[in-house]
C-alpha cells in the first residue's frame, strides 16, 4: 500500500519484451523524489487494481507487438474495456496519462497504446497529461525522457484538482460536475506558466535522483588529439559538460553458486507465448549462389507428429540459443569460466529498494550458469541507459568510467544513439571496449532481457505438403567495425546455419555405428498466427503480391495452396494472381526459379521480375526495383484494387521497399482516379481498414 503522506498515482505497464516495464520502473523510482508515490502493477494483474473505482490519476506505459497488437500481457485488459455493453461514461471519473512505445518502421506505429487510449476516451476517461508516442526507430528516449520530466507537474496539478474537487464537493455538489470536465484544459493553460515553478520546486528533488558529474572530471577525458568522437572517446561539448546522470538502479537479485550435481534445466522449462514443439529439420537448401551478397536458406521441418497447425501467411517462432563461443567469451571476461557448469540459485536481495522485486520468470529454478547465459538472457541486447549507469559502478579506469557516464547522460544522448543503439553494440562489445568494467553476475540477470524466440514467415501450405513446414531466411551478418572487434552472425540465423550444415553438405555427414545419419537435428518452435495476412476467403477475388528477396517466402505458401485448391475444386472460380519479385542478380539470388511452374499450372496468372544489380544492353533500361515494375502496370493495379475489390500484399524490408511500394500505389491511385495525392492516401488508408492492403514487413 502507498503511504498517505505522499500523493498517490496508479502506474500500469503492459510489456512484451520488457521495455515498458523498465520505463515504468524508472517512473516509480523517480516518483519519491517528487513527493509522489506510484502504486505500480503489470496491467494483467487485474486483481490488484480497479479502474472502475480508481480515484487517483493513472499512468499507463504500453508497448506494441506483432502487426500493431497490444502486448500479450494486455490482452485481458483490452478485451475487458472493448466490451460493447459498457456505457460511454463508464470511466468518466478516470484521469490518465499514457505513454505508448512503438517502432515507426512498422505500419501500425504505437497501435497498442493508441488502441487503449482511444477506447478509454470513448468510455469517458480524460487526459490529465498529453499522450506520448515513443519511437524505437529513432530512440525511445527522445520522447520518453521529456515525457517523464513533464509528468511530475501534470500529476501534481491533477492531484491538486482532485483535492479541490473533493473539498468543494463537501460544500456544494453541483460544482463537481463542472470541475470534472476541465482538468485537461487547466493543464494545457497552466503548463507554460508553471515551467519556472517546476524548475525551482523540483531542484532539490532532482538532486536525489540525478547525479551531477562535476567539471573537475574534465581532466580525465580523452586527450585533444582525438578530434572525432567514438564509443570510447568523447569531444566537446560533451567531454567538457557537467552531466545529468540517471539515478543508480537499485540492485535486487542475489546469486549463489551451488554444487554441480543434479539434472540441468530443460528447454521445456522455459516460458514462451505458445505451446512449444520439438521438431526435426528434414531438409536444408541454399537458395543463393556462393557469390551472392546475402546467403538465403530454405529449411523444411517435419511437424507430422505434432498438433502444430498453420495457414499460409502465418508466422511461427524458433527458440534459439546464444552463440556458444560468445557465452564462453563472456564467462572468461567475467572471470567465471570455472563456474559455467555450477548450478545457480537466484533470490531477491533482502532489503532491496526495488518496487515489487521478483526473480525473473524466464530463468528456470534449477539452472547452471551456462544454461542461463545460453538460453535465458539476450546477451546480444543493446544495453539500456540504466544498465550503463549500473556498469559505471563496476568500472575502475577513470576515463572509461567518465565515458560510460557520458553515454548514459542527457548530454550524451546523441552519442548513445550513434555509437550504441544505431551501431547495434551489444553487452559483449561494451566489455571489450571498456576492459576495466567487471560487472557482477547479478547485474547481468537484472539488466539483460529475456532471450526472445525469433519469428519467421511460413513458406509452405499444409494442404500442399501435409505434415511439413518450410521457411526461408537470410543469414544476418553484422560486420566488424571500430566498436565491434569481430563480425557476428544473427543469433538465430547463425545458429540455424551451423545446425543444418550437415544437410547442406551431405558429404561431410558422419554416420554412426548403425549406419544412420547422426546429423538429424531438432529445433523447438511455437505458432504465432497472423490474424490478417491470409488468402482471401473468396477464391474468385483477385490479389497482387509484392515480395522481393526473402519477402517472397509467404507467397510460396499462397501459391502452393492455390495450386492444390485448383486441383481439388475444378468447378470453383479463381481470380487472377499477380506476383512482383525482385533481387540483385538473376543468376545469384533468384530464390525460386520454379515460380514458372505456378504460371504453367495456373496458380499464378502474372509474374513480373526485376534485377537491381544486373547490367542491361537493352535500349530501354529495365526497371530495377519492384516499385518501378508496379508503376508499369498502374492501370491493372487500379483495376484490381478499385473495380474488382482485390487484395494487395507486401512482404519484406519496410524502410527500403515497403514504403516505396506504398508511395508508388499512392501515385497510381492519384493518376488513375484523377485525384490529388491526399485523396489517394485516404483511399489507401481505406484499403488498410478493409484489410485489403496488407503488410508483413520488418526493419
Automatic annotation (TrEMBL):
GO biological process annotation, one example: folic acid metabolic process
Subcellular location, principal: cytoplasm
Residue runs in coiled coils: none
PANTHER family the record matches: METHIONINE SYNTHASE REDUCTASE, NITRIC OXIDE SYNTHASE-RELATED
Keyword Membrane in record: no
UniProt domain FAD-binding FR-type: residue ranges: 274-536
The UniProt record lists the keyword Methyltransferase: no
Species: Smithornis capensis
Domain (Flavodoxin-like) ranges: 9-152
Keyword entries, A-Z: Amino-acid biosynthesis, Cytoplasm, FAD, Flavoprotein, FMN, Methionine biosynthesis, NADP, Oxidoreductase, Phosphoprotein, S-adenosyl-L-methionine
Transmembrane stretches, start-end: none
Name of protein: Methionine synthase reductase
InterPro entries the UniProt entry points to: CysJ-like_FAD-binding, FAD-bd_FR_type, Flavdoxin-like, Flavodoxin/NO_synth, Flavoprot_Pyr_Nucl_cyt_Rdtase, Flavoprotein-like_sf, FNR_nucleotide-bd, NADPH_Cyt_P450_Rdtase_alpha
EC number from the UniProt entry: 1.16.1.8
